[in-house]
Amino acid sequence: MSMSDVLYIVVPCYNEEEVLPETSRRLKEKMEALVAAGTVSEGSRILFVNDGSQDRTWEIISALHAADPVFSGVDLTRNRGHQNALLAGLMTAKDRCDMAISMDADLQDDVDAVDKMIEEYHAGCDIVYGVRSSRKKDTFFKRFTAEGFYRVMNLLGAETVFNHADYRLMSRRALEGLSQFKEANLFLRGMVPMIGYRSGTVEYERGERFAGESKYPLKKMLAFAMEGITSLSVKPLRMITGLGALIFLIAAVMLAYSVYRWAVGDTVLGWASLMCSVWAIGGLILLSLGVIGEYIGKIYLETKGRPRFLIREVLDDEG
Ligand code: UDP
Ligand code: MG
Predict the structure, then answer these.
(1) pLDDT over 70 for what percent of the chain?
(2) Half-sphere exposure of 289 toward its Cβ, with a 13 Å CA cutoff?
(3) Is the beta carbon of 215 within 6 A of some atom in ligand 1?
(4) What does the pLDDT read at residue 278?
(5) Which end of the chain is more exposed for a tag (fewer CB within 10 A), N or C?
(6) Which atom of ligand 1 approaches the CA of 108 most closely?
(7) What are the pLDDT digits (tens) for 129-155?
(8) Cα of 221 to ligand 2 centre, how many Å?
(9) Where are the beta strands (DSSP E) in 156-250?
(10) Is residue 71 scored above 50 in pLDDT?
(11) Is the Cβ atom of 216 under 6 angstroms away from ligand 1?
(12) How many CA atoms lie within 13 A of 186 on its CB side?
């Protein structure tokens, strides 16, 4: 059974010319070891997705493919972002593989965790999550924001796997499940748990990017967090309703109190408290409108049903 299982390792790449030579060497080494051990078939592939890079990324991928059929490539028509690029790769792999593993191009995900993921797959898991065992190597700021992110996500009703990013194995039928999720606003690590099936986790130590710069500056990270929350849950909308009810209640109490003060003849009414409430209510209204607008924007984009990615070219010799 296991000898014939085709593995596709899917790697999204955006301006990764600096890391690709080393990454491809490491992944090829890993693939050869897996084939030699008989855990995956010889038809297995390393699939690089070029996400509209401006540098020589696609040239490098094409050259790798020409030199060795273990390397495959998907060239997107333009930059669509990490999540869309990853989906493009997974959907290309779907009809060609028995299992696909997604990982970043910068080798921050420990390549050796792949063995354990495949073991879990053979033990019957359809989805295996790579989970970071520690964040020792992260700066305090990154650890604080990242772990806070998972906590807030769960609090707001988005079910995610703690400390799991997009390093995971998915079986073919799990990929088929994923292909039925039609949303344009992608947040894969929140969507995958919704697929179901048996899942497992594999712990790994996340290293540092060995070359090049992060393609996820703080601004993109915040946008990503927002995306995650609003595309997975409607809890923030409900919280607004709750907040509105609470404020109304407070207003009623305040009104009763003012009437009481007036009745006992104490007419020195608080100008300051009035000003404060005007500002507070104004702010809350704007905030609430913002949250609602956020969802309406999502609905707008979803109803357009735009393609999530367009592929210019696929380089893949089926094994
Ligand atoms: N990436 C992508 N498209 C983008 C931005 C990033 O395909 O628009 C890829 C990038 O090449 C890498 C992965 O997504 O393989 C994660 O990016 P990065 O390592 O820069 O993020 P970080 O690890 O700093 O969060
Ligand atoms: Mg990285």
Answers:
(1) 95
(2) 6
(3) yes
(4) 75
(5) N
(6) 23
(7) 999 887 666 778 777 877 887 788 778
(8) 12
(9) 164-171, 199-204
(10) yes
(11) yes
(12) 21
Cα separation, 263 vs 259, whole angstroms: 6
Q: Find the ligand nearest to 53 CA.
A: 1
Looking at this protein, which amino acid is placed at residue 173? R
> 1 falls in which pLDDT band (50, 70, 90)?
very low
CB atoms within 10 A of CB 88: 26
Q: Round to whole Å and give the CA distance between 115 and 122.
A: 11
Sheet harboring 127-132: ordered strands across?
A: 199-204, 127-132, 164-171, 99-102, 7-13, 45-50, 71-76, 311-315
The residue whose CB lies within 8 Å of the most ligand 1 atoms, and thus the one to mutate among 83, 104, 209, is: 104
* Burial grade of 8 (CB within 10 A; 0-12, 13-18, 19 or more): buried
Ligand 1 pocket member 79 (CB < 6 A) = yes
pLDDT over 70 (residue 319): no
- The residue to mutate among 14, 137, 167, 208, having the most atoms of ligand 1 within 8 angstroms of its beta carbon, is 14
Handedness of CA 238, 242, 247, 251 (dihedral sign): positive
